[in-house]
Amino acid sequence: MSELDNHLNSFTQEQFDQIGADFDAIRRRVINDLGERDANYIRTIVKRQRQFEVGGRAMMMLPPTWPLGVASLSLSKILDNMEIGHNVMHGQYDWMGDPALNSKNFDWDTADTAENWKATHNFEHHTYTNVVDRDHDIGYGLLRMADDQPWEPRFLMNLPLTALLHVFFQHFVAVQNLKLENYLIYKTKSREELAEEFKPVWAKMRKQLAKDYVYFPLLAGPFAPLVFAGNMTANLTRNIWACSVIFNGHFPEEVEQFDESVLEDESRGQWYVRQLLGSANFEGSKLMHLMSGNLSYQIEHHLFPDIPACRYAEIAPEVRAICKKNGLPYHSGPFWKQALSTWKRIARLSLPDRLLPSKKPTAKAAPKAGATTDEESLPIAA
Fold this sequence. Notes:
Distance between the termini: 33 Å
Protein name: Fatty acid desaturase domain-containing protein
Structural class: mainly alpha
InterPro entries: FA_desaturase_dom (IPR005804), Fatty_acid_desaturase (IPR012171)
């Protein structure tokens, strides 16, 4: 029996309602406290990101400072995608009234369109977190990441495809909304449908490719090869880091995936419990938290995706306390430990079921008497 089955069977609806009320209270308190320090924080991060980008692009044009330039541009791209883009497009700073930091207007330095990302991530992933066949982030249509996903021979490529996903992460995310497996493998999407859906994706990808590998190298004149190589290295660094952060928060062995039946009459408290069981944190320095967009606090992010991520560290002890009070797990560990556990899972699930020592069942919903949803509704996704 899975952890979620255990809790669904042992908790009363009143207990789930109390868990929901406890987490809602944290969210309301933080939302009501948002103000100048949060606005100053994100504006400072945006300023630093731009400084790293300008400085990096300048230093890349001189051989002696090329390594520093690449490092600076890599930091810029990571900050743009992780701490700024991801969080701004969750609506975490909409309350500021700043058009440049509004989720409806913001676009980021990556191949994915803002609209496609908000559809696959903000809505699909944060609504159906770790629900097999509903959350496309479980394997991105490429990988087998849940025990109850039927094994296919293509999953023997789990490990090399995961490595490829890390290297070209921005482009895999850009085409995620197309769900290419429906065209290439399952034949449920026509060529014409795919071509139409690909038009806005290709427009954004083409724009990014031209910026990094045509326009900026041309502006560098005789230093074009240095700039071309520097942009490629910075993109590679950003891709590998971003993919590692996301995998560490979603796929360590202790993190659960769920059957679609968990969604039936799911109350707010039950939604919160699913977020807890379907997430993992990783520990590190303040710099690591910043460079991960505070997704090192993936548990807190799944619970409160619309709260500014810079607040996750201060509310994490309260989340732990609620977990302890209710006997709920709080999965956390060093970065290396979560990465090792994730790659172990990827390797294990590449094999046919008959070769696996044991199979961890995907959580299924138990009967829920009197399940309700409170007035704040679920989930909380921008």
